[in-house]
Amino acid sequence: MTRTPSLLLAGLALAAAPLAAQVTDAGERIHFLRVVAKDYVFEAKPTSPAGITTIQLVNQGGDIHHLLIVELPTNRTPKEFYETNRATGAMPAWAKVVAQTPTIPANGEVFLTQRLEAGRYILSCQLAASDGRSHVAKGMYQLITVTPSAAAPRVAGTRKP
Asked: pTM of the predicted model, to two decimals?
């Protein structure tokens, strides 16, 4: 099957066009957070606005990875999360998982959409490496702070003027 040049050019123009911000039917903006997994570290912006967030996990490492988003209580620190995890091989009892991606292979990616409230969260990979140590024990965790959203809450059923 042959494609005409005009169809090909139209497809390229569409691919190059900037995407409009994603917004819910209620007018709430959907935020985007890209998280890159490497062996054994996450790379992500340290802050994100509160609200509905689509998280893209991209695996640029050679090992398999996943992403757990763990709410960090105000009376706990990332160091406590790491130390407990390293010592026991498991997450602390006080850790609350709010979202999790499936495991993805090297060069894989996955998307997860979750409403994140303002607060502090740990991004972690709890999988075991080939040496038996967890990825967290190797340093694969990162703190992110979700900041209060600037958007004023709207009453259900109302539209933005």
From this structure: 0.77
